[in-house]
Amino acid sequence: MNISKSEQLFSRAQNSIPGGVNSPVRAFKSVGGNPIFLKRAKGAYLYDVDDNKYIDYINSWGPMIMGHAFEPVVEAIQKKAADSTSFGAPTELEVEMAELVKSMVPNVDLIRMVSSGTEACMSAVRLARGYTGRNKIIKFEGCYHGHADAFLVKAGSGVATFGIQTVPGVTAGVAADTLTAAYNDLDAVKSLVTANKDQIAAIIIEPVAGNMGCILPQEGYLQGLRKICDEEGIVFIFDEVMTGFRLAQGGVQERLNVDADLVTYGKVIGAGMPVGAFGGKLEIMQQIAPLGNVYQAGTLSGNPLAMIAGYTLLQHLKENPSIYTELEEKTTYLKNGLHKVLEAAHTPFVINQMGSMISVHFSQQPVVDFASAAAADNALFNRFFHAMLKRGIYLPPSAYETWFLSNALTQEELDATIRAAEESLKEVL
Ligand code: KE4
């Protein structure tokens, strides 16, 4: 596979962009080698600057649930752009977008648009602190809620990929207010709550985790956290930046029937355009300025191009609920195919999957938290990643990420992926 233009671009990029990338996880640092520079994408396929073609299982880290360049979204953006790209003033489209989200997620009374998942999560935590008058939060090892200071404590995604224990620039004061527990360990949370009585403003969690691979909540876990929050007056925040509108129209709240007090969104809600959002219970959300004094703002919040993209995609998902069934069937088909070739390869493995989120771990034990994800043979994953890449299968470049399927995938691509996995395993084992 000729990747010379990517290599030239990566070398050139180093002269003007830190590490040659605008987001660390794109740099292939954990899997080794140089990142592939992409030129365009359509449906299930990516095309790099050397005209190599790949089947995409990153889908921009989740947003491209209908595949790339989904015509209704493209046309909507093109049309809207002619009316100006930003006003910095309220528009009807923002009202329609908020009403659409509320119609898909019943326990959201009010919702505020922002421009990224990080903004959504940091605003939700500030709101919980303002609402409760408390300072501390609990997050979970391996979960990633964006790069706001409070979250860069035992975080997942790129922070885990690079093995960064303490992030320079995050002050001891900020870190001291972020308590952590292992995912799926309810007793650890009970101990933290007891030791920090009446000091914890929020518990923030990825209700299905996607930043240490795909990690599922064990039976009763989320319900147990809900109970603790109810008993202790703690705000329960679901970070659904990855899972929102992907695992169900109503996300994990609908799929697993557990209500959060606040929920954050990103990725799918913007259809690939810069959109994040946070919303939830009226009594909490009404503390947000200008209603209340918890200040939060953004020049491009509710940006018309971003709104029309997200609105068009969400409307399509709402009007075509069979998409979720199709995505589930395709992901199950892929899982079963991978299971077969991994078994035949006689290597220890675990496949975690929910809906159209899936991850493969070369692990002897179940992968239920960050420690077990980190204990897997991730060096083998890195070799597998490259073997798949050169066979035209583009996986997330880290064992600490989730694969995302798009509904543009057909059996042809899924079978090609399974075949590539079989060949790749023969190469790397
Ligand atoms: P952004 O600020 O990157 O839009 O969203 C932050 C965020 C918040 N919550 C969850 C559950 C997330 O997964 C993310 C971002 N996810 C990473 C991929 N693991 C984005 C990719 C990147 O950092 O470039």
Strand adjacency order, main sheet: 4-10-9-8-7-5-6
Topology as a string of helices (H) and strands (E)? HEEEHHEHEHHEHEHEHEEHHHEEHHEEH
Quote the beta fraction.
5-15%
Q: Which parts are unreliable, with pLDDT below 50 for 5 consecutive residues or more? A: none
Instruction: Note the overall shape.
Output: globular
What fraction, in percent, of the residue positions are helical?
25-40%
Q: What's the number of extended β-strand segments?
A: 14
Our count of helices gives: 15
> CATH first level of the largest domain: which class?
Alpha Beta
How many individual domains? Answer: 2
Describe what this molecule looks like in 3D.
This protein is an alpha/beta fold and about 425 residues long. The chain has 2 domains: about 5-70 and about 320-429, Aspartate Aminotransferase, domain 1 (Alpha-Beta Complex), CATH 3.90.1150; about 70-320, 3-Layer(aba) Sandwich (Aspartate Aminotransferase, domain 2). Helices cover about 40% and strands about 15% of the residues. The protein has 15 helices and 14 strands. The protein has helices spanning about 5-15, 70-80, 90-105, 115-130, 155-160, 170-175, 185-195, 220-230, 250-255, 280-285, 305-320, 320-345, 370-375, 380-390, 410-429, and strands at about 40, 45-50, 55, 110-115, 135-140, 180, 200-205, 235-240, 260-265, 275-280, 350-355, 355-360, 395, 405. The strands form 3 sheets. It has a 7-stranded mixed sheet with strand order 4-10-9-8-7-5-6, with helices on both faces. Strands 1-2-3-13 form a 4-stranded mixed sheet. α8 (about 220-230) links the parallel β7 and β8. α7 packs parallel to α8 (about 220-230), α12 packs parallel to α15 and α14 crosses α15 (about 410-429). It is globular and about 55 Å long. The two termini are about 20 Å apart. The relative contact order is 0.17. The model has no long low-confidence stretch (mean pLDDT about 95).
